[in-house]
Design brief:
Layout: H1 7-17, E1 56-57, H2 63-72, H3 79-88, H4 92-100, E2 107-108, H5 109-118, H6 121-124, E3 131-136, E4 148-150, H7 152-168, E5 173-175, E6 182-185, E7 190-198, H8 200-205, H9 207-223, E8 230-240, H10 256-273, E9 278-285, E10 293-303, E11 305-306, E12 309-310, E13 321-326, H11 336-339, H12 352-355, H13 363-378, E14 384-387, H14 392-421, H15 429-434, H16 448-459, E15 472-476, H17 489-494, E16 500-505, H18 510-519, E17 524-531, E18 535-540, E19 543-549, H19 550-555, E20 561-566, H20 583-589, H21 599-602, E21 613-615, E22 618-619, E23 624-625, E24 629-631, E25 640-646, H22 652-673, E26 681-688, H23 696-716, E27 720-726, E28 730-734, E29 741-745, E30 749-758, E31 775-779, H24 790-794, H25 807-822, E32 826-832, H26 836-848, E33 851-855, H27 866-871, E34 877-882, H28 887-893, E35 899-906, E36 910-915, E37 918-924, H29 925-932
Parallel strand pairs: 3-20, 8-9, 15-18, 26-27, 33-36
Antiparallel strand pairs: 1-2, 3-4, 5-6, 6-7, 7-10, 8-10, 11-12, 13-16, 13-17, 14-16, 15-17, 18-19, 21-24, 22-23, 24-25, 25-30, 26-30, 28-29, 31-34, 31-35, 32-34, 33-35, 36-37
Helix pairs in contact: 7-23, 9-10, 22-23, 22-25
Length: about 950
């Protein structure tokens, strides 16, 4: 340039090039430029003096002081929680234990940080486990919620799954809600697991780093389920604000455009480098998500047994030792767990407490760890594994200590019962099990914890164990491998520096583990030994730096009370003048942010790397969007997995209960449209919302959408096996236009990620029209249900008539359509979701690169308007194409359900829609494609 950039121009430029939070920029004037040296290379001067191992923290403060301490140290603990910690330091037994360990009565910084991490919302889900007080102003409240719900997790989410297991006599779920991911049977030889996590907090600070390590973390969740699993698929969904919104953000905040750009890059970078296909992708926009939502998921597989050992079971006993494998520990990721449990404040970017919570990923290291862990598993060395995710070693080793404590408590109880009943090693297995009523829930399905204990009982191992009913661990940080000097003990233990796993082994297998890890160039350090002390003891620099009771650490958290107040919405249906020609409206609708194809994002990811893909994200000659994706998780097995998504977050503004129901119905429908069926479908549920404890209306939406999704799961027999709740989706910033603080709260949402298991790939179905002349059908009645629809949003309205899924009508469709597909009668199938029939019909034509001639009269159902027929978002509907010569056979298969022929596929590129004797849409496939590709470009 021929002039110097002013400050505004300079900062605008660097925001586009990078993120000042993690990137360093150097400005060189033209007269200082040296063409030989260029900009040179910056060598950062890192001077980190060796800190003391720990410091004592006084928690004997008044209430104001306790809250101040929580804020200063970024603990994210409320007053009741801080008071509970204060009370612990007055316990005479605890004080004596500390004196014997060489500690003062005051807590150390490590102990306080470990408690904060363990009690963080991210790790312990204290809001979902709180007591919810529900009040409704609706005299006809359809949710059926009671006035008091003691833990929505224990009273709504888990009971729905267990009810389905009991009612349907399900035997294919083998681990639900207990491990890092839910586990199901693919067949009798192979197990699969599924988990969907969120990485909202770090992604909002730095899109690349947050999304990158989000992928790395969720695949470690699956890998460390049981003893190990192989990752076969990665999925990703996000909710962003529109890149053109929020023009008044300060320059130090990551811009919406850069958030979108870098999150895509972060997801692409991690999975692809590890040889994991990223196939299921969904991008949504809502301007309430200034704190963006980034959902990352993974599916993994493992043999049901290796050398006679069930791979989904964890075994841990006193005397076993823990090794940390993989990456080195650093300051990155500190306070990730507590940070993600809080909203993002307006000064987040300038706070070292906040910005160091962004982690640095290295997928190559993680790949090497996984391959080594596989070797260790097949050699029978690993007894249990655990991911160092949120909270790092504090979380991983703390949870393993809790697991041991739970095991020892049950083992002790079983032994005492046997002594009382006179049961010994000579007793029959049936008698051993029969004598445990009230001690162990033997009929628990999907509980690897119970299954491991039953194995110990059946094998007779239980009689030879020495137990006092307690479990603990001694953690030694002295020799862990650090990225650099200068880390305190508490920083080491709570850091979420990436690519680290903890594996538990018998002490006598330690040398073998170390040799294998050395041979495979994987760092391995013994970090803990398990015992029967009932305490989590931490050593660093050869001195005790922390001592906490395991029971207090994991069961001492006081229960939150959350007040929920439901008020029915007061929106009305808008009065929109009917247009006789809807062509321009139609084209505008399919080009909106939430209806676009986003092929420029989908094609960034490698879908084929493991060679198992069946239905891909883009399908057909014209490359339209697929309802769902499917693949062979194991190439030598015939089974196929189908992944789908259900999310209608704006519907919650009208009725969150029906939004929850609809999200389940939509996700199932998309699985069916790709060739699945109701026989074997399970869910991960991700809840997103602002703080429910501070807003009763938000709390009411959250509990209502959870109840709605649970009711739908029960009806269709599709259990939830895992999930994640993110309940601090708020962000503040100082407006550059008004200099005032602006707080943006996200709309409550529940994203339902469905996973279907199908017998083989013979039923695989895609959305693209395939043969000119094929008859086009609509399955499912279209109703006046445009509330929260894409059409109403385009017109600036929300409306009132939210879609209400009629389960009794939808269920027969969900059973009969798969039979028609299996019979080979269906050439294409498209689920009708966002933007209604308009987008569904357009996508079928775009994907097949074929025209369409339809008449809407046959599906009018007294709606009386073409726009309502085309744009309604009534759930549970499909568009299918059928060979003209087989229409009678198809209609016989669909007898008894709503199934109407509306037109036929054309060999030309014309796309024509008629209604009541007139043409209401007249366009072409190329024009549809051009509009559907959208306008948001990077």
């Amino acid at each position: 340039m021929d002039r110097r950039l002013d400050s505004q121009e300079y900062f605008s430029l660097i925001r586009r090039l990078g993120n000042p939070l993690i990137n360093q920029f150097t400005r060189v004037d033209s007269q200082e430029w040296d063409s030989q040296i260029g900009i040179g290379f910056h060598y950062p001067d890192v001077n980190l003096p060796k800190p003391p191992a720990f410091q004592y923290i006084d928690v004997n403060l008044d209430d104001e002081g306790l809250i101040r301490l929580s804020g200063e140290r970024y603990l994210a603990l409320n007053l009741a929680e801080m008071r509970t910690i204060k009370d612990l330091t007055k316990d005479p037994i605890f004080i004596q234990q500390r004196i014997e360990a060489g500690l003062e009565e005051r807590l150390t910084d490590l102990e306080l940080e470990v408690l904060a991490q363990t009690w963080s919302e991210h790790c312990v889900h204290k809001k979902f486990n709180g007591k919810w007080i529900y009040v409704s102003d609706d005299t006809d409240d359809e949710s059926g919620l009671p006035n008091v719900t003691d833990s929505v997790f224990k009273s709504i989410i888990k009971p729905a799954t267990y009810a389905i297991i009991a009612d349907r006599n399900i035997d294919w779920l083998i681990s639900v809600f207990e491990d890092n991911s839910g586990v199901f049977k693919i067949n009798e030889r192979i197990n699969g697991s599924h988990k969907v996590e969120t990485h909202n907090h770090p992604s909002s600070l730095d899109g690349f780093g947050g999304a990158n390590t989000g992928v790395g973390g969720v695949i470690r969740d699956n890998d460390s389920t049981g003893i190990f699993m192989d990752i076969v698929s990665s999925q990703w969904w996000s909710i962003f604000v529109n890149p053109t919104s929020y023009r008044d953000l300060s320059l130090d905040i990551q811009s919406p455009l850069r958030t979108l750009e870098t999150v895509v890059g972060g997801v692409e970078d991690y999975g692809n480098k590890m040889g994991i296909p990223t196939m299921s992708v969904n991008v949504m926009f809502d301007d309430s998500y200034l704190k963006c939502a980034v959902g990352v998921g993974a599916v993994a597989v493992a043999p049901a047994e290796i050398n006679g050992r069930k791979t989904h079971l964890k075994d841990i006993k006193p005397g076993y030792v823990a090794y940390t494998l993989g990456g080195k520990v650093g300051k990155d990721g500190i306070h990730g767990a507590t940070g993600s449990s809080m909203d993002l404040s307006s000064d987040a970017e300038t706070s070292s407490q906040v910005n160091q919570s962004v982690q640095i990923g290295n997928p190559i290291i993680e790949k090497n760890v996984f391959e080594t862990q596989r070797i260790l598993a097949y050699k029978g060395i690993i007894a249990a594994s655990q991911d160092c995710g949120a909270g790092g070693w504090s979380s991983a080793l703390g949870e393993l200590a809790k697991l041991l404590d739970d095991f020892e408590s049950k083992r002790y109880g079983i032994q005492q019962r046997y002594k009382y009943c006179g049961i010994d090693e000579q007793s029959l297995v049936e008698d051993r099990l029969a004598g445990l009523e009230g001690v162990l829930e033997l009929n628990s399905v999907g509980s690897p914890f119970v299954e491991q204990l039953k194995y110990e009982i059946a094998s007779g191992e239980i009689f030879n164990l020495e137990t006092n009913g307690r479990g603990g661990a001694e953690v030694d940080l002295t020799y862990v491998i650090e990225k650099y000097l200068g880390l305190t003990s508490w920083e080491k233990i709570v850091s979420e520096a990436q690519e680290r796993e903890v594996v538990v082994v018998k002490k006598e297998r330690s040398a073998e583990l170390e040799e294998i890890c050395k041979h495979n160039n994987v760092e391995a350090v013994k970090i803990a030994e398990f015992n029967n002390s009932g305490m989590l003891k931490v050593i660093d620099q050869n001195m005790t730096v922390g001592l906490l009771p395991v029971q207090f650490l994991h069961r001492g958290l006081p229960q939150m009370i959350i007040y929920a107040h439901h008020r029915p919405c007061n929106y009305r249906e808008p009065e929109i003048t009917e247009k006789l020609d809807l062509t321009n409206t139609f084209l505008e609708l399919i080009g909106r942010a939430n209806t676009q194809l986003f092929d420029w994002i989908l094609t960034r990811f490698d879908h084929e790397v493991q060679g198992g893909s069946v239905v891909k994200p883009l399908v057909g000659k014209g490359m339209g969007k697929s309802d769902a994706i499917s693949y062979h998780p194991v190439l030598t097995e015939k089974e196929v997995l189908i992944e789908s998504l259900g999310n209608n977050l704006l519907q919650g503004d009208i009725d969150a209960y029906h939004m929850g129901r609809n999200n389940v119905v939509d996700s199932i429908g998309r699985i069916i449209s790709a060739g699945g069926n109701l026989e074997k479908i399970c869910f991960n549920g991700n809840t997103l919302c602002p703080k429910p404890e501070t807003d009763p209306s938000v709390a009411a939406k959250v509990i209502r959408m959870l109840k709605g999704s649970a009711d739908a799961e029960i009806y269709f027999g599709t259990p939830r096996i895992s999930g994640k709740d993110s309940t601090s989706m708020e962000r503040s910033y100082i407006s550059t236009e008004t200099s005032r603080e602006v707080r943006v709260k996200a709309r409550p949402a529940i994203v339902m990620s469905g996973l279907g298991v199908v017998e083989d790939d013979s039923t695989a179905t895609t959305a693209d029209f395939k043969i000119p002349g094929d008859a086009v059908y609509v399955i499912g009645e279209t109703r006046d249900e445009l509330g929260a629809s894409e059409f109403y949003q385009m017109k600036g309205f929300i409306g009132r008539n939210v879609p209400k899924s009629d389960f009794d009508e939808i269920n027969p469709r969900y059973n009969k359509l798969p039979n028609a597909i299996k019979s080979g009668l269906v050439h294409s199938c498209q689920y009708v979701g966002r933007a209604g029939l308009a987008l569904a019909l357009a996508n079928c034509s775009i994907a097949g690169d074929m025209g369409l001639d339809v008449n809407l009269d046959n599906i009018d159902n007294n709606l009386g308007r073409a726009d309502k027929i085309l744009f309604s978002e009534t759930t549970g509907r499909f568009v299918v194409s059928v060979l003209q010569s087989r229409t009678r056979e198809f209609e016989e298969k669909m007898q008894g359900i709503y199934c109407r022929q509306i037109g036929h596929v054309s060999s030309e590129h014309g796309f024509n829609v008629n209604y009541q004797g007139r043409e209401v849409v007249r366009t072409t496939v190329p024009e549809l494609r051009a509009k559907n590709k959208g306008e948001i470009r990077l």
